[in-house]
Write a structure and sequence with these properties.
The chain is mainly alpha-helical. The protein is 60% helix and 9% strand.
Length: 129
């Protein structure tokens, strides 16, 4: 299961639904993963944080889950996804295309609150919380 950026941010903010879903995933033993794209998205908002404790929590959470890179195969799939959504008139953010490309390449579902974008991707399994 790939944790989308929205889930990671909600978990850091201790959103009750995300905390409950994280506990459920932990009990199930299902591997939880993040993508390099989500690290970028989370970190771009954290770099200017002067609160050392918040930065530590972000680093701790990100280091506690598996990380999938945006390699060449994933990037190609992301490009295909982005183009297909655009051609169908339902464009999605490039970052979401990259996360979807990684998920499809690795046969993983995406856990997100942003179902509007991810549900546009054909063949992608999407879960929410």
């Amino acid at each position: 299961m790939i944790l989308d950026t929205t889930f990671i941010i909600d978990l850091l903010r201790k959103d009750p639904a995300s905390v409950e879903k994280a506990a459920s995933l932990q009990r199930s033993g299902e591997p939880v993963l993040a993508t390099a794209v989500s690290v970028f998205e989370v970190w771009q908002g954290a770099v200017d944080l002067k609160d050392v404790e918040k930065r530590r929590k972000i680093e701790s959470l990100l280091s506690s889950i598996g990380l999938l890179p945006l390699d060449c195969d994933c990037a190609k799939e992301a490009g295909r996804v982005h183009d297909e959504c655009y051609r169908r008139g339902v464009p999605i953010d490039p970052e979401d295309s990259m996360i979807a490309g990684i998920a499809l390449t690795h046969g993983q579902a995406v856990l997100t609150r942003n179902v509007k974008h991810f549900r546009q991707v054909r063949g992608l399994s999407v879960e929410t919380y």
